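pinging the channel bc i need a second pair of eyes. not urgent but kinda urgent?? the chain im working w is below, pasted from the shared doc
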Amino acid sequence: MMFDKFKKLGELNKLRSQAMKLKKALSSEEVVIEEGAIKVRVSGDQKFKEVFINGEPNRFLVDILNRAIKKSQKMAAKKLQTMEGGLGMFGL
């Protein structure tokens, strides 16, 4: 029984490692959208890098957008933890 828990913990660590590699790869990717007088540059790991309005950078808006994204990600993570399929699927 104890061996099964160690095996499941190893599987969990492997998944975590894969997720971290994916996050690192995504952070180096970027998406740029331009619509009219607005230009937005976002990294693949969902972080706003730049927002330009009428050619002027708006650092304040970048900060607010990043805080909103982070808050929504924490909310989603919290919901996932409460779901039956969270760590319970590993029997931990």
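so The chain has a mean pLDDT of 85. and The chain has one domain: 2-90. — does that match what u expected or am i reading it wrong
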